[in-house]
Amino acid sequence: MDFNMKKLASDAGIFFTRAVQFTEEKFGQAEKTELDAHFENLLARADSTKNWTERILRQTEVLLQPNPSARVEEFLYEKLDRKVPSRVTNGELLAQYMAEAASELGPDTPYGKTLIKVSEAEKRLGAAERDFIHTASLSFLTPLRNFLEGDWKTISKERRLLQNRRLDLDACKARLKKAKAAEAKATLWNDEVDKAEQELRVAQTEFDRQAEVTRLLLEGISSTHVNHLRCLHEFVKSQTTYYAQCYRHMLDLQKQLGRFPGTFVGTTEPASPPLSSTSPTTTAATMPVVPTGTGLAPPEEAALCLEEVAPPASGTRKARVLYDYEAADSSELALLADELITVYSLPGMDPDWLIGERGNKKGKVPVTYLELLS
């Protein structure tokens, strides 16, 4: 019991001495041991790494989970060391609503069929999003958290110890200075000065040892950067895979929707203005709907032999291609973005298609991929 009381008293005395030293330094009443420029640069670099890692981590969490309530819930589960419950993505929820709407409104109607197709695509998008979130969390967020909750806590602990050792060192320097001043006035015995010098040597040794430990940890920040760089590459790779999957799913959906001949029955506006129009405006589509030859062309057009088709004497126009288009069969003409082709319509053709010519090549082309020039 007496030992514990003495230890508490000793700790309190050390804490008080450090507090006095720190306060006097702040008011410019005591000298402070300065760290060398290289050490200060390491400290600044470590602080910058910690601050930006926190910002990047938080914003990535927002990117992967925009819902603040869901992020708080996941944080609590993680702190309680419990598995986060599986959560339906927004795409999967939309797919569910669309499927239920199709079931109620009529799955055999054009609208119902389209709802079903879109719901299937949204479900695939939701699954891709779930995979992306999982991969990004493991390969990117987890290493950042490990740094902040592991390496950085160790660095912070050693920096606090270094600060204490420095305060002890400077307090010893101040005591020795006072002892020598008192000795000069013959008010102290020589053994008091010797004691102060011995305390200073011990404090200097502990400070140097702690400075070396802290310096090695701070220099390890370079390895942290290398690790985070590797994780960043993994994050970009997973994001690229995710967006590529989304693009493929939506491109496939567009092609499927283009095979529904009755999807837009009853609309009052044609898919594109007639070629005979004298309007100086051009036709441009901001997002191409990819039609395919299967199921779109009327029977008389399907039997059309392109080699025997001749352009009409009037009514041909120039068109600029907006997007690359891959021909679905030999009756279609493949397109490259920004090229110029000649287009015209034939009697009985589906309004979503035109005949396109480029050199000696000829074939059907989708109107929504073209900007018709005046």
Automatic annotation (TrEMBL):
The keyword Coiled coil applies. It is found in: Cytoplasm. Signal peptide: none annotated. It comes from the Eukaryota. Pfam families: BAR, SH3_9. Keywords: Coiled coil, Cytoplasm, SH3 domain. Residues 179-213 form a coiled coil. CDD domains: BAR_Endophilin_B2, SH3_Endophilin_B2. Residues 24-266 form the BAR domain. Its main location: cytoplasm. Residues 314-374 form the SH3 domain. The keyword Transport does not apply. Homodimer, and heterodimer with SH3GLB1. Belongs to the endophilin family. This is Endophilin-B2. It comes from Microtus ochrogaster. The gene is Sh3glb2.
